[in-house]
Design brief:
single chain, about 90 residues, mainly alpha, Membrane-bound Lytic Murein Transglycosylase D, Chain A, 3 helices, 2 strands, about 10% strand
Length: about 90
């Protein structure tokens, strides 16, 4: 029983460390992101927009989260005609 509790505690601590490190990494990668705007078209999804506007060093999911947070989106549902702040494409 004690061994199971020890393993569980180790797993929880590893998860917490990974989550904090990941958040710090995302913050580091996004401190100087140049921004642009993008108008949502029919069929666009947050993941699609993140693929089209990548942030170097981040996954598509992390970029989508950045876009969501930057635009104060409470949901991943987008509306046609909605204007979003997105990462500017690198030249």
């Amino acid at each position: 029983m004690l061994a199971v509790a020890s393993v569980a505690l180790c797993l929880i601590m590893a998860w917490l460390f990974t989550a904090r490190t990941s958040e710090a990494y995302v913050a580091q990668c996004t401190t100087s992101v140049a921004e642009a705007t993008e108008v949502v078209h029919a069929g666009d999804g947050l993941q699609d927009i993140a693929v089209a506007h990548p942030i170097e060093g981040l996954t598509v999911a992390q970029t989508a989260r950045w876009i969501s947070q930057r635009n104060n989106l409470g949901t991943s549902m987008l509306s046609v005609g909605q204007t979003l702040i997105v990462p500017r494409a690198s030249a």
